[in-house]
Amino acid sequence: MKYYDKLIFELSKPGRRAYTLPAAADPSASFSIPSGLLRAEAPALPEVSEVDVVRHYTNLSQMNFGVDTGFYPLGSCTMKYNPKINEEIAGMPAFQGLHPLQDESTVQGALEVYYEMERSLSAITGMKHFTLNPCAGAHGELTGLMVMRSYHASRGDTARIKVIVPDSAHGTNPASAAVCGLSIVEVKSNANGLVDVEDLKPLLGPDIAGIMMTNPNTLGLFERDIKEIAELVHGCGGLLYYDGANMNPLLGVVRPGDMGFDIMHLNLHKTFSTPHGGGGPGSGPVGVAGRLAEFLPTPKVEKGEDGRFHIVDDAPMSAGRVSAFMGNFGVILRAYAYILMLGKQNLAMAGKLATLGANYIKESLKDAYKLPIPSVCKHEFVFDGLIDDGSATGKPGATTLDVAKRLLDFGYHAPTIYFPLLFHQALMIEPTETESKETLDAFIDVMHVIAKEAAEDPDILHGAPHNAPISRPDETMAARKPVLKYWDGIS
Amino acid sequence: MSKIVEGLLYSDSHEWVKVDGDVAIIGVTDYAQAEMGDITYVDLPEVDDEVSQGEDFGALESVKASSELYSPVSGTVVAVNEALEDAPELVNEDAFANWIIKVQMSDKAELESLMDAAAYAGITG
Amino acid sequence: MLDRIGVKSLDDLYADVPAGFIYKGEYDLPDALSEQEVRDFFERLASKNTRLKVFAGAGSYDHYTPAVIPYIISRSEFLTAYTPYQCEISQGTLRYIFEYQSMVCALTGMDVSNASMYDGPTAAAEAMRMAVASARKKNTVLLSRTLLPNVVKTVETYAKYYGTNIAYIEAEDGQTSLASLREAMACGDVAGAIVPSVNRFGIIEDLSGFADTLHEGKALLVEYCDPSTLAVLKTPAEWGADVAVGDGQSLGIPMCFGGPYVGFMACTKEHMRKLPGRIVGETVDGQGRRAFVLTLQAREQHIRREKATSNICSNESLMALFVTVYMSLMGPQGLREVNEKSYAGAHLLHDMLLQTGKFEEVFDKPFLKEFVLKPLVDAKALQARLCEGGFFGALETEEGYVSFCVTEKRTRAEIEALVALAREA
Lengths: 491, 125, 425
Hints:
The complex is a heterotrimer. Chain A is of the alpha/beta class. In chain A, 32% of the residues lie in helices and 10% in strands. Chain A is built from 13 helices and twelve strands. By secondary structure, chain B is an alpha+beta fold. Chain B has helices at 30-36, 83-86, 89-93, 117-124; strands at residues 9-10, 15-20, 23-28, 39-43, 50-51, 56-62, 66-70, 75-80, 101-105. In chain B, the strands form two sheets. A six-stranded antiparallel sheet of chain B has the order 1-2-3-9-8-5. In chain B, strands 4-6-7 form a three-stranded antiparallel sheet. The termini of chain B are close together. Chain C has two domains: 53-64 and 331-424, Aspartate Aminotransferase, domain 1, CATH 3.90.1150.10; 68-324, 3-Layer(aba) Sandwich (Aspartate Aminotransferase, domain 2). Chain C is built from 14 helices and 17 strands. Chain C has a seven-stranded mixed sheet, sandwiched between helices. Chain C has a four-stranded antiparallel sheet with strand order 13-14-17-16, with helices on one face. In chain C, α5 runs parallel beside α12, α6 (120-135) packs across α7 (149-162) and α12 crosses α14 (412-424). The longest helix of chain C has 39 residues, at 317-355. Chains in contact: A-B, A-C, B-C.
C-alpha cells in the first residue's frame, strides 16, 4: 500500500462540511453576546466531508499496531486480549446517556455496578474496601498515598513524611510520592533482584509513612521476604502500599491483603482486560484494609438496608475528591463484564497460565539472550541483551534497542526496553494468559532468528525496522526544535 | 578520553569554573557532555537568582535523560548564556567554550574546595 | 511447556511464595457466564436506570455524538494499542495526538498543548502545581468562587497533599471579582489563579484586567474553559492567560455517568517545559519523511522520578481521538452552530421559565447555554417533578438557585413540556 502522509488539516477546503444539526428551538433568536466576550477569528479547525474524515482516520489506524493485530509482549503492561462483549456492554445507551449528577433514584443500575465491582475486587485482592474514582494507575497511586497520609495525620503522626521505594520500582512510584508531598528513600535490591532486607532495616523509623512495593517486582520476581518486610514496616508504624501493576500473575494464587498490604491500586486496563486505547482511558481502583476505609476519596457508593444504593459525598475523614465525578464508569463496566464472563474458576487460572507462558519463553531463549537472574519468574522476566551481539564481526554490536526494532519487522510489538534500570540492556518480556503455545513458539523462533542475524551481521538490526510505516525517526531534532502543532511546521 | 583545560577549577559533579575577579564563569566539562549524549535543552536560571554551592541551578536534558546542574560556588547570577536556549548543541560541540552562567561570588573561599585540572583528571580518567 | 521449564505442575511455579500466603479459598464471585447471560445481566441492570432528557450541565453536557465517532474509535488498531512507545508502528496514534494538540491550540489560542489529561478537574489540579513550579518560591494558588464545585474540591485535595496554600477570589454579582483578586495578591505569595471562562452560574466571565494584575505579581493566569464554547468565545490567549485547562467532554463525548472524559491542558511557549503529560512532536525518519514521536520526555515521571512535578503517565488517548474526530466533523462552522442553537434554546427556556412566575432572575449577565434562576418553589420538589416527567433539570446550587442547561439536542417541544411541568410545580 502507498505510504499515507496526510494530516487532517491538509484535507481542508473552505465551506466543506461533515455535520448536520437539527433546527434551533427558537429560529428567531439572535446570537447576541457582547463583542468584547467573543473571539476575534474562528478557530482554524479543518473543513472536511464525512468521507474525508472516515478515510483519513482509517488510513491512520493502518499505521498502528494493537493487541488485535498481533502478539504484544510488552513487559509490565499486561497486554491481554480485550473481549468484544465488553465494548458492547459499555456502549449501551442506558449507561452512556446517564448524567453523573442525576438523582440516585434514577441511576440504581449504575450504582449497583459500582457496588458489586468494589465487592468483586475485594474478593480477588483480600482488601476490605475499594474506591473506583481514580482514572488511571498513576492516579490510583496518588490516591492511595493520600489515604496513607490521611491515616497518619488522623493519629497526629505528622512526622511521617518519607516513603520507601525499591530501586527496581516503576518511575511513577517516586513521582506519585513526591506530588503527594512525601520525600523518597530508596531501598536497594540484592543480587537476587529482591528487596534487600538488611538495607531496609536502618531506613525504618518514626519518619516513615510506608513502603511502596510491586510484588512480583519489575524483574518478575516474587518478593519472598514480604512477610518479614511487612512485620518490619508495620513494626515501625508505617503502612505497606501494593502497586497492582503486576497483579496479573497472582490471580487465583495470592491476595495482596493476605500478604499484609494496607493499601493497593489495580490497573483495570491490565489485569481486567480493558483496552489500552493508545494510552488511556484507564482506571485505577484503590483498595484498603478495613481501618483505612474512612480515608477513601469521595463520592462513595453505599448500599442501604432497603437494598437501595446511595451516593455519599460527606465523609469528614476522607482524603477528598480526586476526579470529576466517580472515575471512568465506561472502563469499570468493561472490567465488571470481564469478571462475570470469566467467573471465579477461570479468573483463578489466569495468573498461573500467564506465569507458565513467561517461564516457557524465558527457558526457551536463555541460550541466546543473557538471563541475569535465572530463578523461576512470574508473569514477566528481564533479559540483559544478546549473548552474542555480533561485535566479533568488527561491526558495532547489536543493542536491545536494535532487537526491539527488528521484532517490528517480523510483525511483533517490542518488549519493554531499558527498564528496569538495574540492567543496561534490559529487555522485559510479558506474554499473558490469552496467548496460545503456538503464538509463543512462533515468537521464540523469531527471537532466535534475530539473535542469529545479530551474531552474523548486526547491521541488519541496526537498520531495523525495514518494513514498518516509517524507519527510526530523529528524536534529537524533535526535542531540540519542537514542532508541536500543525502550524509550527509550516514556515 | 575527554578534554580537560588547564587553569580552570572543577567540581566533582562535572562543572568547571573560570575565575574572573569576583565573578565565576561556570560551564560543564567535556566529560559531562559526552556522558549526556545529544543535549536537547539547557534549563537556565534567571539573572539575579541566588545560587548556593552544591545546589542545583538548572539542568541539561537529552532525549532520554535529565541531569541537574550544581553550582560550584555561592552568589548571585549576573549573566546566563542565552545562546544555549536556541542552540543547546553548542555544549556538545565545545563544552569549555560555551559557558552556562556567570555568578557574582559571595564567598571566594569556596573556590578552595574545588579541584584543579590534574585532580579532576584523576576522577574522570 | 512444564517440561521445558523443568517443573512438574503449575503450582511449582509458585514455590518461592511462602506457603502461608497461597490462597486456598475460592473467590466469592459467581460462576462463569456465557456471553448471552452477561448481556442479559447488564440489560437487567440498565433497566434499573432511568434515561432523562437532560437540561443540566455543571461539568457534563449532553451534546450530540455524530455516528462516525464510535465507528472510528472502535477500530481495534486504535482501541487495542498501548501508549506509542514504539513510534515506527504507532504513527496512527501519534498523528491523531498531534492533530488533537493542534486543535486544542486552535480553540484556546495557546502555543502548546499536551496529549490530554484524565478530566477537567485533574487538569486544573495539574495547572495548580505547574503555577507553583513556575513561580518557584511562591506557594499560594487562588481559586475563583465561581468555578464548578468538583473543580474546586479536586484542586483542594491535590493542594492539601502537595503542600500548596489555597485562597479564594470572591464572586461579585455572579462574576469573579477583580477587586477581590487585587486584594488577594497583596500577600505576595500568589503563584497563580484559576478562573473560569464560563462559570458555574453559566455566566460568561469578563476577565479584563485579570492577566495584567496577575502578571504584575509574577503569577500565572489559568483559565478553566468549556472547549465547545471556545469556538465563539474570547480565547484564553486573548484574555492573556498563561495556561488553559478544561474538560473536553463537551466536544460530543457521551455523559456516561461521569467518564471516561478527557482533560485538556495548553500553555504559552514560555511555560512549555513545565507542561505535564505526554507531548507529541514532528520530526523526520531515516528517509527524511515526516514522522511523529513522543518528545520533551525529560519533563516526565519515568525520567525525573521524584523530581517530576507530575506523576501522570498515560493520557486519555482514545478520548483525545474522540474529540479530534468530533472537531474534524464539526469544523469551525459546525461548532459555531452548536453554540448558536444551544444559545437559542437556553434563552428560550430562560424567558419561558420567568414567565411562569415561579422563578426570579438572579443575575443580568450574558450567558450561553447554561443559566441559574432563583426558584420561588421548593427546589428539590421542582427537580423531582421534572424527573417524574422525564427531565433532568433544576440542579440546585449551594446558594439555593437552580441551574438549567440547553444544548442543540433539545427541541422546542421538550422545552415547552419542561416549562409546563415547572408551571404546575
